[in-house]
Design goal:
The structure is a homodimer of 211-residue chains.
Chain A lengths: L3 E9 L3 E3 L18 H4 L12 H6 L6 E7 H4 L23 E5 L7 E2 L5 E5 L3 H11 L4 E4 L3 H9 L5 E7 L7 E2 L11 E7 L5 E7 L4
Parallel strand pairs in A: 1-7, 1-8, 3-4, 3-7, 4-6
Antiparallel strand pairs in A: 2-9, 5-6, 8-11, 10-11
């Protein structure tokens, strides 16, 4: 069965998945890279990195996926829609290696990158986008890649089977909140928490079987 | 040296220390007792309770304090100021056993309870209230007892040496947020996190030595 999963979404203690303002120079605004340092320190990111709990979680990003869905704010800085040459932050060989669906109100023709990533641009609500991505995933899982707004929309719509958040011990004060609109999320999910020696906390939400 | 400490402030994943609306029948609003179940299950609360990590943290509430400061919203439900007979939620022998300073814009004469608790009513800003409580504490520590607004005010004013929060794995969606106005709190504190088998996460903020 093909699942819909979210992995490695880092948030501050006060629930922000990015700071502000976001720009080409500062994709995460005043948060800088502080939300992601835990991941840069793992073997998943760097061959010299750590191989413990943070790495075990980080590596789940890469296994079993046949498609990704991401929001316009993950694909590029504000205004990328006006730049016909913009093909994402990730250079010629993006780390997705599957069909990747970018949600935007300004669709454009698909762009085939190296390494198996093809960007498709889609103006569709969550359920419809997921149907299309699921078809492209060839029986594998679909990853919701973020950012926070897209994660929130898909979780609120009841479309997500597994959600992995990483609580980073900083207080950002402003940015894009991940929790808004998700009241009583625990009713539908089994929640687990584990703290890592690195200082972050891994939170997993696994949808309860409806069988 | 007399420290200012906060213990056992339970918050939801989205940072609310209470739900809404608060009333005499529902002091924590729609949160009910869900934020505090972890504590009711400990030996600190109940002789039949657990003796592990949750209990170790819970018990710190009781040791080394010579005074407490609490907000009007902790002392009573909305409107208690209009009830001259209101002496708090806790019956004749409240669990403070020290001078206890209630911050309110409607001060009244002190009320002496059983067991060493005397309620004093104080219309004062945080630094001034702390000075008065510290004097009453006889060299022991001062506890900031909550609720969320008072915790936030004292932390934001730089008056708190040690802060213990308990993250409960529920999403409340609405209520009183503890994080607002505390951007970059991690600059002044060493932050530790540890997850408990009960499912909650203990977060401690210990002020870095300024020596």
């Amino acid at each position: 069965m093909s699942l819909t999963r979210i992995h490695n979404l880092s948030i501050s203690l006060d629930g922000f998945a990015t700071g502000e303002p976001q720009s080409k120079e500062a994709p995460f605004g005043h948060a800088g890279e502080r939300l992601h340092e835990w991941m840069f320190a793992t073997r998943f990111w760097d061959a010299e990195g750590t191989g413990g709990i943070d790495n075990a979680f980080a590596a789940r990003h890469d296994h079993g996926f046949g498609a990704e869905i991401m929001g316009a704010n993950k694909f590029g800085p504000p205004g990328w829609q006006d730049d016909p040459e913009w093909t994402g932050w990730w250079g010629p060989n993006p780390p997705f290696h599957t069909p990747t669906f970018v949600l935007t109100h300004h669709p454009r023709p698909p762009v085939e990158m190296e390494g198996g990533t093809t960007f498709h641009f889609l103006d569709a609500p969550p359920a419809e986008a997921l149907r299309i991505a699921r078809e492209a995933a060839g029986g594998l899982d679909v990853r919701i890649g973020g950012g926070a707004t897209v994660v929130r929309d898909f979780v609120a719509a009841g479309l997500v089977d597994h959600l992995h958040l990483v609580l980073v011990p900083i207080v950002l004060g402003r940015g894009v909140r991940v929790w808004d609109g998700l009241e009583a999320l625990e009713d539908d999910y089994t929640v687990e928490a584990v703290s890592s020696p690195s200082g972050v906390i891994h939170l997993t939400f696994t949808r309860r079987s409806t069988a």
